[in-house]
Amino acid sequence: MDGRLSALQARLQHQFSDPRLLARALTHRSFSAEHNERLEFLGDSVLNLAVAALLYDRLQALPEGDLSRVRANLVKQETLHQLAVGLGLSEVIRLGEGESRSGGSRRPSILADALEAVIGAVHLDAGYVTAEALVRRLFQDLAINPTMAATAKDPKTELQEWLQGRKMKLPVYRVAATLGAAHKQTFDVECEIVELGVVERGIGASRRAGEQAAAAAMLLALKAKGK
To answer: Taking 90 as the threshold, does the pLDDT of residue 94 lie above it?
Structure first.
């Protein structure tokens, strides 16, 4: 594993001062209680900020709403999975025996989450500037163009734009429960709009999918109430 981690750091173009951060970023909850979900949470925010800055620079003619849609296209699970595969994360992710037998090292949600965790680990190890540089390298070969804004909005993006259009705060997402065995979990996620005092829930095979399901439920509830 040490050799593979060294090779991964070469591909990342970052040598960790604290290798334990990288090891944790590559540890799924099925493998150990010391898993990568907190790093994933941090990396998700770093990734969104770094991609927002990248788009601000590259697509200077696009308005805010279109920039949000392009960003959603870039940080979605499918894109992150492709980048994770390109980095070889499937070769170094640490999984429990059951998850490994069921093909977890190839599962898009696990690899996308691991990539976010690696970005979070780089941020903790060397700061935001280094993490942002990593994100820009990861996305440098992707075709980023204004037509991405025409892609159908995912529920989280649509809900965010609905709230922003009404000068309201962004929704709060929380994992209410994790169901099932470690190698085949589902995530029960709450979506709350604090200013309206409204909470809806959704279930998905990953935290990200659960958030999308909760956002979709929230949109349906708002439309039903004529909001």
So the answer is: yes
Which pLDDT tens digit goes with each residue over 31-85?
999 999 999 999 999 999 999 999 999 888 888 888 888 888 888 888 899 999 9
What is the rounded end-to-end Cα distance, in angstroms, of the chain? 53
Identify the band that residue 183 occupies on the pLDDT scale cut at 50, 70 and 90: low
Considering only CA atoms, which of 30, 176, 49 is closest in space to residue 107?
30
SS3 44: helix
Residue 63: φ, ψ to 5°: -75, 170
Q: Is 172 exposed, middle or buried (0-12, 13-18, 19+ CB in 10 A)?
A: exposed
Contacts of 173 (CB under 8 A, 6+ apart): 189, 190, 191, 192, 211, 214
In the three-class reduction of DSSP (H, G, I as helix; E, B as strand; rest coil), residue 90 is classed as helix
d(CA 58, CA 36): 31
Residue 140 CA: distances (Å) to CA of 31, 133, 136, 169, 226: 32, 10, 6, 32, 42
Residue with tokens 């037998």: 101
From 23-37, 113-127, 175-189, the region with the lowest mean pLDDT: 175-189
Domains of the chain: 1-151 (1.10.1520.10), 152-227 (3.30.160.20)
Catalytic residue numbers read: 44, 116
Question: 191, 214 in Cβ contact below 8 A?
Answer: yes
